[in-house]
TrEMBL record:
GO-annotated molecular function: GTP binding
HAMAP family documented for this protein: GTPase_Der
Domain of life of the source: Bacteria
Signal peptide: none
InterPro entries per the UniProt record, alphabetical: G_ENGA, GTP-bd, GTPase_Der, KH_dom-like, KH_dom-like_a/b, P-loop_NTPase, Small_GTP-bd
Stored CDD domains: EngA1, EngA2
Name this protein carries in UniProt: GTPase Der
Keywords noted in UniProt: GTP-binding, Nucleotide-binding, Repeat, Ribosome biogenesis
Function comment: GTPase that plays an essential role in the late steps of ribosome biogenesis.
């Protein structure tokens, strides 16, 4: 059973994202004093007294916006309220009822069929509760004063929410493949996300830095569940100076850490840049699976020669990611985008693959006999036992007589033997060497 959706709306800077974080129980949305930080819809599951619902955060609502970023945010908010079973209309109790609040209230009454609860925010003391009474004037029956920052009134708001929603239970679902789209600013990440989803889920703009948060979107393709995560563009560290951009970078890096597969998006016209290589290194260090996606391929010469030349460049510039498949797509036209789905499944399965311990010991034993490691000092290095760790990425514990005697070239040889036997397409392989005392 799909969970009912509760959507938070309101004008800019009234504390919507702070309330979202408070209800979710963590810092899932970026909060900043600068108005208009939230632009795309952000969702999370909330459980309260045995009931569950999906909570959505939205950007600051400016009714009547016809162009620019404000119009795109307005379109996102309209989509969010149309799918909602309940709308939380957040206002600022300290500022009182503003003309923009009244305009939003009229818009909600005209176009929203769901129940609407007004939440005057910033009621930080019981003595401030009288400030909330003014908001009964806008004509909604339920007014629940809260302090999102301090948590006052939040439990009462949750009681109102679950009391108004249809019954729903948390149903165990098939584990979804978590896919994070990463890359430099303006390489087409949000366009690719929208193309994969088949809808305008996230805002697309030529303005760099449009995406600020890590936006999770669950969906299903050919009966396989996915969670697609759009992220902010990652610039060179020396160029990241504003606190808001630093928050965005942290969210993007954390999204990589929790993903099964990362789509490393590069601009085919620019080729592989130094920053692309740094992003790829972050993906490898996080242990995520990887697919290099050359976007804007519709602008490149057709034919196998162009692909071959790009592949050679990618293998040269991304030597640490030589195991990652390369896809050639156009998010703008949809060219070859559907080919990403079988690649995603292949990489996710490879990352989760486990080798039975007897098979692993046979493989390592054969590899060592065929090409023994150099001696360390006057003593040969002996491999005693091998086993695979439980959690991905594929991590192998090798018990040896002296770990320092197994140098980097020989470790690379063992990794190549594992890949030759089991594939492990698109996933890093880690070797952990342990001595007798370990």
């Amino acid at each position: 059973m799909s969970l009912p959706v509760v959507t938070i709306v309101g004008r800019p800077n009234v504390g919507k994202s702070t309330l979202f974080n408070r209800l979710v129980g963590g810092r899932r949305a970026i909060v900043h004093d600068q108005p208009g930080v939230t632009r795309d819809r952000l969702y999370a599951t909330v459980e309260w007294t045995g009931r569950a619902f999906t909570l959505g955060d939205t950007g600051g609502l400016e009714p009547g916006a016809e162009s620019g970023m404000a119009a795109q945010v307005l379109a996102q908010v309209e989509q969010a309220v149309h799918e909602a079973a309940l709308v939380i209309f957040v206002v600022d109790a300290r500022e009182g009822l503003t003309p923009l609040d009244e305009e939003i209230a009229r818009l909600l009454r005209r176009h929203v069929q769901a129940r609407i609860v007004v939440a005057p925010n910033k009621v930080d003391r019981p003595s401030h509760e009288a400030l909330a009474s003014e908001f009964f004037r806008i004509g909604f029956d339920q007014v629940c004063p809260v302090s999102a920052e301090h948590g006052l009134g939040v439990a009462e708001l949750c009681d109102v929410i679950v009391g108004a929603l249809p019954a729903a239970e948390v149903v165990p679902e098939q584990k979804a493949i978590r896919v994070t789209v990463v890359g430099r600013p303006n390489v087409g990440k949000s366009s690719l996300v929208n193309r994969l989803l088949g809808q305008e889920r996230v805002i697309v703009s030529e303005q760099p830095g449009t995406t600020r948060d890590a936006i999770d979107t669950p969906f299903t393709y050919n009966d396989t569940p996915y969670i697609l995560i759009d992220t902010a563009g990652l610039r060179q560290r020396s160029k990241v100076q504003q606190p808001l951009e630093r928050f965005s970078v942290v969210r993007a890096l954390k999204a990589i850490e929790r993903s099964d597969v990362a789509l490393i998006l590069v601009d085919a016209k620019d080729g592989i840049t130094e920053q692309d290589a740094k992003i790829a290194a972050c993906v490898q260090d996080a242990g995520s699976g990887a697919i290099v996606v050359a976007n804007k391929w519709d602008l490149m010469p057709s034919g196998a020669d162009a692909r071959q030349q790009f592949t050679l460049e990618a293998r040269d510039q991304l030597r640490h990611l030589d195991y990652a498949p390369i896809a050639f797509v156009s998010a703008l036209t949809g060219y070859q985008v559907s080919t990403l789905f079988p690649l995603l499944q292949t990489v996710a399965q490879a990352r989760a693959h486990r080798i039975p311990t007897p098979e692993l010991n046979d493989l390592i034993g054969d590899a060592v006999r065929n090409y023994p490691p150099p001696s360390y000092g006057k003593r040969p290095v002996r491999f005693n036992y091998a086993t695979q760790a439980i959690k991905p990425p594929p991590t192998f514990l090798l018990f040896v007589s002296n770990p320092r005697g197994v140098r980097v070239p020989y470790r690379r040889y063992l990794v190549n033997q594992l890949r030759a036997a089991y594939g492990f397409v698109g996933t890093p392989i880690r070797l952990v060497l342990k001595g007798k005392s370990a």
